[in-house]
Specification:
Belongs to the D-alanine--D-alanine ligase family. The protein has 11 helices and 12 strands. By secondary structure, it is an alpha+beta fold.
Amino acid sequence: MPALTIALVAERRSTYLADGRSQQECAALTHDGEVDEVVAALKRLGHTVVQLPGIASLVQDLATNRNKEWDLVFNMSQGFYGSAREAQVPALLDAYQIPYTFADAATMALCQNKINTKTVLDHCGVPNAAFSVISPHQRDIGDLVQDAKHLAFPLFVKLGTEGSSKGIDSFNKVNSTAELTKAVETLRSDFPDQPILVESFLAGREFTVSLLGTGELSRVIGVREHIWQDPSKPGHDGMSNGDCTQNFSSWQSKSSTDCGLVIKDYKLSETIDPQVQTACLLALDAWTLLGCRDAGRVDIRFDSNEPGSTAQVMEVNPISGMLPGHSPLPASAQVNGIPFEQLMAGIIESTLLRISQKSLTNMDSAQYISV
């Protein structure tokens, strides 16, 4: 691999917390340690890294032509404002024809909007939970409940354009019309401009599948299972169930070590579990269908624990956490013999391969036109 000059765009969580933002508002932003680990790995691979702390710095560098010094951008930007904030940096880079890691603006915007994602998955026959959408313009609670009447309880209520479990707490799983109404009112109070997604609750096993590559070269490099403990029973494998009162991720549980969650990473070469294999195949289908690139995750959950249960796509993550030993993507890769530095090399190689293929395609098109 040639030595490159790589601009790394990432909003450090500490910057926004120091500016008075809440932990929940900053949940999707990168940990300082995450940025530092990525920078260190890229440097060990022989690359020069230019750090840009967000879109404002990127705009300044584009305006002064500093981007002429870059070979590509390593995009870790989550953005902070707007319903398509993860697409903002990729859109700028596309406009300036600067190559970058991970999905393009169209895929980023699609995957951030869970409603649009599910609509595309439905259209293409990819399994996902039955759902109903509550528009921010709908005001009559009775109408809202009527819209979701075709769904059977328990249901799960969440924001339509958020990630990192933002807006999710113990109240989001509802078992009655009264609880549904209360959950909608709570989310509306905190996020008045957001559409709300009401889904059938998936009660089966939950997996997050890590992938590397683009298109037909995409492959699964790790699988992590989230095993939620029954708060009325002893912990699993000798682990305490802590204060767990739920069997789904919330923004708080993702930062807690005492939430009753047991994590199990699978070695793919040794796994014969049919549900793990099914989750991998479904994740790969969703990943390629939505145009994800280079590396990321797809979250899968089965609809029940009964025989014959069906795997469903919960969420597609075209840009994923990169904190070694913590984030599912690098942690699952490590279990499967891909250390962090090798993972970074794989991401850069995937990006460079896309660039070279695009250049050849453009060259062939130009030759065809000239004839």
